[in-house]
Specification:
single chain, alpha+beta, N-terminal domain of MutM-like DNA repair proteins, Helicase, Ruva Protein, domain 3, five-stranded antiparallel sheet, four-stranded antiparallel sheet, DNA-binding
DNA sequence: ATCATGACCTGTTAGC
DNA sequence: TGCTAACAGGTCATGA
């Protein structure tokens, strides 16, 4: 699932349990995820304190003391969960359920001496499209996967004018253009569908038709820009408000539910006020697109 | 260059 | 109930 809001929710959920604590032990239950795990991963991170958790697009960054950072991506099915042991790490045991077969990486965090007990942070990923990498912190700017990323949809760098520049020569459907991480970093299939619906734009419309002859943003591109900001901000908020409940129930992070207006709602009535349409599913670039053929033009 | 497609991997669900 | 096919929120390599 993890698009930007989900990764941000994971970051916020993990931060209280990782920042300021040390990685007492790292357990690797296999040698690779999507890519091989870093060489000497265990030896390089064990004993280091976590300074800070940050995020770039859909990447989670765990900044360690000693100028080393872990870059993690959750792929399609990655999630973290938190297990607390009031009696310390020794109190944990290993009931191996089906789901736990995909617990690939376990961080055993040592308490911070502030009355909080020891905690295990467990990375689970059935499909293994996620990965973890180890990078010198001062080299993060040059991290290859970050190099081509477009602006975050949460910041000021995303504007209608910026998108006009990127869309001007693009003949591909606007759906595909928005999924391109080099244009905007962090949008995925769900939020692209949602943003297009909110702004009344057909996902099949060519991106360059949202730009005027002069190369400026058409009014509808202003709407789209606002919709992207709104939908991402609302999803982050929804993730934040679901955090407490989630941690309390099973400690899992990365799969909070959110109400969508079109995504996965094929056949349902369009919720746009006054619209009589029905949500349809089409396939673009091999992926499902949900949209309302009546109010999205 | 730009765009669409297939590949990566496993689990879940719809349909017969 | 069991089997099969389709599908899943993301990237990356490939070829047109």
């Amino acid at each position: 699932m993890p698009e930007l809001p989900e990764v941000e929710t994971v970051r916020r959920g993990l931060a209280p349990f990782m920042e300021g604590r040390s990685i007492g032990a790292l357990t690797l239950n296999r040698a690779d995820l999507r890519f091989p795990l870093p060489r000497d991963f265990r030896g390089r991170v064990e004993g280091r304190r976590v300074r800070h958790l940050s995020r770039r697009a859909k990447y989670l960054v765990i900044v360690l003391e000693g100028e080393l950072s872990i870059v993690a991506h959750l792929g399609m099915s990655g999630s973290f969960r938190i297990e607390e042991a009031p009696g310390g790490l020794a109190a944990f045991h290993h009931p191996r359920s089906k789901d736990e077969a995909h617990d690939h990486v376990v961080f055993a965090m040592t308490g911070d001496g502030d009355g909080r007990g020891d905690v295990r942070i467990i990375y689970n990923d059935p499909r293994r499209f996620g990965f973890m990498d180890l990078v010198e912190t001062d080299a993060l700017d040059r991290y290859p996967a970050f190099g081509a990323l477009g602006p975050e949809p949460t910041g000021n760098a995303l504007s209608a004018g910026y998108l006009a520049g990127r869309f001007r020569a693009k003949k591909s459907p606007v759906k595909a253009a928005l999924l391109d991480q080099r244009v905007i970093a962090g949008l995925g299939n769900i939020y692209v569908c949602e943003a297009l619906h909110r702004s009344g734009i057909s996902p099949e419309r060519r991106a360059n038709t949202l730009v005027t002859e002069e190369g400026d943003a058409a009014p509808v591109l202003e709407d789209l820009t606002r919709a992207i900001r709104d939908v991402i901000a609302e999803a982050i908020e929804a993730g934040g408000s679901s955090l407490r409940d989630h941690i309390r129930t099973d400690g899992s992070l990365g799969y909070f539910q959110h109400r969508f207006r079109v995504y996965d709602r094929e056949g349902a009535p369009c919720v746009t006020p006054g619209c009589t349409g029905t949500v349809a599913r089409i396939v673009q670039s091999g992926r499902s697109t949900f949209h309302c053929p009546v109010c999205q033009t």
